[in-house]
């Protein structure tokens, strides 16, 4: 047990004192154009720490910088080579999205998407050395995983049967797999290091501690709530968060869910973790958060309250009260009418002590009832000089409670300055189709 505690403490300290950086490139190809603004048949973009640094699409057909420091630090030759590289990839994707449609037995009626993401992630240590964490080289089709490179075994992994022909073909060229591993672990990291230096001022910002909240909302499962721990506004990105029940950390096996660390609009970050628990649960739940800006971890205890659990009850009560008031009002009007208090006709004016003051007079002492009547969606006014029939009043009473439902809301680096070997591989990949 002591060993586990020491190991956990070491892991906490090492994560808090390091800083994670990533460089990735994402290519997206559609099977056919769509008439939507900003959506193109082919797009490619580079991301440094999830911030866009360059961009290319099938309309402009030019690789452009998205950060001032990229424009200032990199020569025109970099952008020219990058443009040619992405043009060749655009053609490669056009061929291969059609190959996959045939393999999946899809026609061109719907839009299909082939996407490729590759890049690397490192830890910047306190002494400024860079430690490789992982490389990513993966393909998806229509949002589902299609093929991914295993850096450890230098083999492609096929999660679906339709990807097996491509896996066999690509694994048959081991020199390409060796290059892919070399790119992820070395060349990508070199470019990441260079970009980190170029954009140091832009990416350097004042450290910001997290603000931590614990709250619960009604869950989809009856009798349950979803308890959420949220930390937001922190920088840098690395953070540790746990949900604890009676001091014991909950895990995925206990139903804990999280999308991981996500960016905020102000370049800080946020993270949420949640778990479903019985609404009547009286155990102690706490959110644990640790961050490099904190002298000691933050503990926030859930107060046991549910934000929206009582809203349904309140709505029902208000609705019932309104219905009772409407029924009482309609009943009172009918009683007054039967007693001759309303619609006195031409026999004379209503006594001044009656409800005449609350109704419109017709100049002859008789009351006029003006009620909006809905006919085929139009609003009209039914005016009566005190001669209304029983049928008309019943119809008007019905209309006051009528609800109209009609119409209701109702694989090469794109870093530009690659080696001769990389450029040769790029030329090979241009012809290395997914199909056999």
TrEMBL record:
One of its GO terms (cellular component) is external side of plasma membrane. Residues 377-436 are annotated as: Disordered. Coiled coil: none annotated. Residues 377-390 have a biased composition (Polar residues). Keywords: Glycoprotein, Immunoglobulin domain, Membrane, Signal, Transmembrane, Transmembrane helix. One of its GO terms (biological process) is immune response. It comes from the Eukaryota. The keyword Membrane applies. SMART domains: IGc1. Residues 210-291 form the Ig-like domain. Residues 1-18 form the signal peptide. Residues 404-418 have a biased composition (Low complexity). The chain crosses the membrane at residues 314-337. Gene3D superfamilies: Immunoglobulins, MHC class I-like antigen recognition-like. InterPro entries: Ig-like_dom (IPR007110), Ig-like_dom_sf (IPR036179), Ig-like_fold (IPR013783), Ig/MHC_CS (IPR003006), Ig_C1-set (IPR003597), MHC_class-I_related (IPR050208), MHC_I-like_Ag-recog (IPR011161), MHC_I-like_Ag-recog_sf (IPR037055). SUPFAM superfamilies: Immunoglobulin, MHC antigen-recognition domain. Belongs to the MHC class I family. This is Major histocompatibility complex class I-related gene protein-like isoform X1. It comes from Salvelinus namaycush. The gene is LOC120027545.
């Amino acid at each position: 047990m002591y060993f586990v505690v020491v190991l956990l403490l070491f892991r906490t300290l090492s994560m808090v004192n390091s800083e994670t950086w990533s460089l990735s490139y994402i290519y997206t190809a559609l099977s056919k154009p769509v008439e939507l603004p900003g959506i193109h048949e082919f797009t490619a973009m580079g991301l440094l720490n999830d911030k866009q640094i360059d961009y290319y699409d099938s309309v402009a057909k030019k690789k452009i910088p998205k950060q001032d420091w990229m424009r200032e630090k990199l020569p025109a030759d970099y952008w020219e080579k990058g443009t040619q590289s992405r043009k060749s990839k655009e053609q490669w994707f056009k061929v291969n999205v059609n190959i996959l449609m045939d393999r999946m037995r899809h026609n061109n009626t719907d839009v299909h998407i082939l996407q490729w993401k590759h890049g690397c992630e490192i830890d910047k240590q306190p002494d400024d050395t860079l430690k490789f964490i992982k490389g990513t080289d993966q393909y998806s089709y229509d949002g589902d995983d299609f093929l991914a490179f295993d850096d450890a075994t230098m083999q492609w992994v096929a999660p679906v049967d339709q990807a097996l022909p491509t896996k066999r073909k690509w694994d048959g060229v081991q020199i390409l797999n060796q290059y892919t591993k070399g790119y992820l672990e070395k060349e990508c990291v070199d470019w990441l290091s260079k970009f980190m230096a170029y954009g140091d001022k832009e990416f350097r910002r004042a450290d910001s501690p997290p603000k931590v909240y614990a709250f619960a909302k009604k869950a989809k499962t009856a009798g349950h709530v979803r308890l959420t721990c949220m930390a937001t506004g922190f920088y840098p990105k690395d953070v540790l968060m746990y949900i604890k029940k009676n001091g014991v950390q909950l895990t995925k096996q206990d139903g804990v869910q999280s999308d991981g660390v996500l960016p905020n609009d102000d370049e800080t970050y946020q993270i949420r973790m949640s778990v479903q628990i019985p609404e009547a649960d009286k155990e102690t739940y706490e959110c644990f958060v640790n961050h490099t800006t904190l002298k000691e971890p933050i503990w926030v205890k859930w107060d046991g309250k549910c934000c929206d659990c009582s809203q349904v009850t309140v709505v029902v009560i208000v609705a019932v009260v309104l219905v009772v008031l409407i029924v009482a009002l309609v009943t009172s009007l009918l009683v007054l009418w039967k007693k001759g208090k309303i619609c006195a006709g031409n026999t004379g004016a209503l006594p001044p002590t009656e409800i005449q003051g609350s109704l419109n007079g017709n100049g002859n002492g008789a009351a006029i009832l003006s009620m909006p009547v809905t006919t085929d969606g139009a609003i009209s006014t039914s005016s009566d000089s005190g001669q209304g029939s029983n049928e008309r009043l019943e119809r008007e009473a019905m209309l006051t409670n009528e609800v109209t439902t009609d119409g209701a809301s109702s694989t090469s680096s794109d870093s530009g300055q690659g080696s001769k070997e990389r450029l040769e591989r790029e030329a090979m990949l241009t012809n290395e189709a997914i199909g056999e």
